[in-house]
Specification:
Order of helices and strands: EEEEHEEEHEEEEHHHHHH
Number of helices: 8
Strand content: 15-25%
Largest sheet: 6 strands, antiparallel
CATH class of the largest domain: Mainly Alpha
CATH topology of the largest domain: Transferase(Phosphotransferase), domain 1
Radius of gyration: 20 Å
Number of domains: 2
Number of strands: 11
CATH superfamily of the largest domain: Transferase(Phosphotransferase) domain 1
Helix content: 25-40%
C-alpha cells in the first residue's frame, strides 16, 4: 500500500533549511520555498520521497537531475546547488534538491503576445539546450511546461529550462518510452538513440504549439506499443504548415519550426546551436523590419 507523502509545515527546519511555504507538487515530491537561516538565502527545496518500491525511479530521476544541472552554468538552465540523501547507504528513502528559486510561470500557463518577445524566449531556451548538449546531455522532455518565464532586473522576460529528470547522455537508448505524447520525437517512441536532434524535435513541437495553440501529430498517435515500435517514420502524419495557421509569421521562422518538427533526423537542423543562431537572426529582422532581408 502506497504511503502518503510527508508534508512539512511553515517554520519546520528540514535538513538545515527553514520551510516558508509549499510551492508545488509532483507524483512523489513536494517543492517548498525555504530559507537558509545562516545566509538568509532563499531556495526552492524539492523533497522526493520513496513511499513504495515503484517510487525508486523518482529518486533516480532526481539524482540524474542534480548530476546534470550541477555541471551546467547557463542562465537558461535552472541551477541545483546541493543534493541531500536521507536514510541508510543501501536504503535511501528521502532525497532533497536545493534548487535555484525560479520566480515565474510556465510558457504552458501563460504565453507572451508579442512575437519578438516569444522569439527571444525561444532563442534563450535554444541557447540553454545547446549548453546541455555541449556537456554531453539531452533534456529529452522539452515542452512548454518546462520553460519558466521570469524577468531580469531591467524587466526583460527570461526563459529558464527546468525538470531534467528524464535527461540522459547523448546516445542513450531507453528501455521504455519516455517523453510527453504531444511533443515526443519518433526516436523516443521507437526506443532508438536519444541525441541533440531529439531536443530539436521536442523544441520544434513546443514552438509550434506556442504560436498556434495546436499540437503536431506524433508517433504516439497509436495506443499500442507494438504498433508504435514498428511504425515507419515516413508514415507519421505531417503537421499542417505553420504558415497556413499564422500568415503573420516571418517565413524564416515558419521554415525553421517545420524543419525542427521533421520526423527524419537528417532533415532537422544540424544542431541546437544552429537553431539558436537562426532565431537570433530572425529576432534581429523582426525588431528591425526596415533592414532588407537579403542584406542580413
Amino acid at each position: 500500500m502506497t504511503e502518503e507523502l510527508t508534508v512539512f509545515k511553515k517554520g519546520d527546519l528540514v535538513e538545515g533549511y527553514r520551510i516558508m511555504s509549499e510551492i508545488g507538487r509532483g507524483a512523489a515530491s513536494i517543492i517548498y520555498l525555504v530559507q537558509d537561516p545562516k545566509t538568509k538565502q532563499i531556495w526552492a527545496l524539492k523533497h522526493v520521497e520513496k513511499t513504495d518500491p515503484k517510487a525508486q525511479r523518482f529518486l533516480d530521476q532526481a539524482a540524474i537531475e542534480y548530476k546534470i544541472a550541477n555541471q551546467i552554468n547557463h542562465p537558461a538552465i535552472r541551477r541545483i546547488e546541493r543534493m541531500i540523501k536521507s536514510g541508510s547507504l543501501l536504503k535511501i528513502r528521502d532525497l532533497y534538491l536545493v534548487m535555484e528559486l525560479v520566480d515565474g510561470i510556465s510558457l504552458f500557463e501563460e504565453k507572451p503576445t508579442e512575437l519578438d518577445v516569444l522569439i527571444d524566449l525561444f532563442r534563450q531556451t535554444a541557447s540553454g539546450l545547446h549548453e546541455m548538449h555541449k556537456h554531453g546531455y539531452v533534456h529529452a522532455d522539452m515542452k512548454p511546461h518546462n520553460i519558466i518565464i521570469g524577468s531580469d532586473i531591467d524587466g526583460n522576460l527570461t526563459a529558464k529550462v527546468i525538470d531534467l529528470g528524464q535527461s540522459c547522455k547523448i546516445g542513450t537508448i531507453k528501455k521504455r518510452i519516455q517523453g510527453t505524447p504531444d511533443y515526443i520525437a519518433p526516436e523516443q517512441v521507437h526506443r532508438r538513440e536519444i541525441t541533440p536532434k531529439t531536443d530539436i524535435y521536442n523544441f520544434g513541437a513546443t514552438m509550434y504549439w506556442t504560436l498556434t495553440d495546436k499540437n503536431i501529430p506524433t508517433a504516439m498517435g497509436t495506443k499500442s506499443d507494438s504498433l508504435m515500435g514498428s511504425l515507419d517514420d515516413a508514415l507519421i502524419e505531417k503537421p499542417t504548415p505553420i504558415s497556413e495557421l499564422r500568415d503573420d509569421l516571418p517565413d524564416r521562422l515558419s521554415d525553421l519550426i517545420m524543419q525542427c518538427c521533421e520526423p527524419d533526423l537528417d532533415k532537422r537542423p544540424d544542431s541546437m546551436e544552429d537553431v539558436a543562431n537562426k532565431l537570433d537572426l530572425i529576432l534581429g529582422i523582426v525588431r528591425a523590419p526596415s533592414i532588407p532581408v537579403d542584406e542580413v
